[in-house]
Specification:
The protein is α/β, with parallel strands linked by helices. The chain has two domains: 185 residues, Rossmann fold; 107 residues, Rossmann fold, CATH 3.40.50.1100. The strands form two sheets. A six-stranded mixed β-sheet has the order 1-2-9-6-7-8, sandwiched between helices. Helix 3 links the parallel strand 4 and strand 5. The protein is globular and about 60 Å long. 45% of the residues are buried. The chain binds pyridoxal-5'-phosphate. The site of pyridoxal-5'-phosphate has 19 residues, from helix 2 and helix 6.
């Protein structure tokens, strides 16, 4: 395959059938967004937002992009910035994983590390205030502001069309993890136009406040939020499932060992939710979970027994129960 530049590799991600779970009424499928060039669905968002900003004269040649993100969007934007010749400033916090920090540095992104957190131990507010402060002094910088940018959900119209084409419209449920609500809102809105009968399950983390639940400590990254993102559109979501760190991470380990699929924690949560949906609602049809990223960057965290034990999660204890119920 010949491509003109790295950005052309974004999108058209593969869908794979899961074969491990046999005693269920449904067929489970996964869409591997980790197959995007720098490893997550946020590559799509970064490209779409930057190109929309260019079309709307918000970003000039050689300009600067600033975003508050410690994760996949920061990495996606850093890569897109390199391809297109922009400067990238990432406002991050001490919870950033060493590997993500190294990737951002490899892309020559400028890092601003905030240090003050709020009472619940979150840094979101400080990060946003830092971005605003920099923008005050540099009003020409472009801030994608993924939590409140309609181009974030708009990106996933294409994701939905890919799904529609892959299944020829024959899909009963779509399972979507939620963080900024870009994927959940964008994909749900478009797929419901294409397949009016489809149902959407949104997967959130226990401890997230997106759906009026009390805040709590969580180790899952990507899904969940400490604010209600303006992109949330509850009327598009037929079911909402909250998944614990423990259930998500065990599903990660289970899939790696049974199907060779190494994906991130929010993907573990999405598959766990799909399986529960299949069993509890007795779904006789096809269920697709969108898996946001690859697992490589989590080998020292959710794929490490000692990292999990330090956080009170004992994989060996969970294993016996889980295998009995699901395999
Ligand atoms: C790994 C991972 N999972 C899930 C999500 C949630 O997606 P969205 O922000 O579109 O709601 C993100 C967002 O950054 C993510 O990085």
């Amino acid at each position: 395959m010949l491509y003109n530049n790295y950005l052309e590799l974004i999108g058209n991600t593969p869908v794979v059938k899961l074969n491990t779970f046999r005693n269920i009424p449904s067929e489970l499928f996964i869409k591997l967004e980790g197959n995007n060039p720098v490893g997550s669905m946020k590559d799509r968002v970064a490209k779409h937002i930057v190109e929309s900003a260019e079309r709307n004269y918000l970003l000039k040649k050689g300009g600067t992009i600033i975003e508050s993100s410690s994760g996949n969007l920061a990495i996606g934007l850093a890569m897109v910035s390199r391809v297109k010749g922009y400067n990238m400033i990432c406002v991050v916090d001490p919870k950033i994983s060493p590997i993500n920090l190294s990737i951002l540095r490899a892309y020559n992104a400028q890092i601003i590390m905030v240090t003050d957190c709020d009472e619940s131990g979150n840094y979101l507010e400080t990060r946003i205030n830092t971005v605003k402060k920099v923008l005050k002094d540099n009003p020409e910088y472009y801030w994608p502001n993924q939590y409140n940018n309609p181009w974030n959900p708009e990106t996933h119209k294409k994701t939905a069309r890919e799904i529609y084409n892959d299944f020829n419209g024959e899909l009963e449920w779509l399972v979507l993890p939620i963080g900024t609500a870009g994927l959940a809102t964008g994909c749900a809105e478009e797929i419901k136009k294409l397949i009016p009968s489809i149902k959407i399950m949104v997967v959130d983390a226990i401890g997230s406040v997106i759906f009026d639940r009390p805040p709590g400590k969580r180790h899952l990254t990507g899904i969940g939020a400490s604010i209600v993102p303006p992109n949330v559109r509850r009327e598009l979501y037929d079911e909402i499932m909250h998944v614990s760190d423990k259930d998500a991470f065990y599903m990660n380990r289970f899939l790696a060992s049974k199907e060779g699929i190494l994906v991130g924690g929010s993907s573990g949560a999405a598959i766990y939710a799909a399986l529960k949906l299949a069993i509890e609602m007795n779904v006789k049809g096809r269920i697709l979970s969108v898996l946001p990223d690859r697992g490589d960057r989590y080998v020292d965290t959710i794929y490490s027994d000692s990292w999990l034990l330090e956080r009170g999660i004992d994989m060996k204890k969970i294993a016996s129960n889980f295998d009995l119920v699901f395999s």
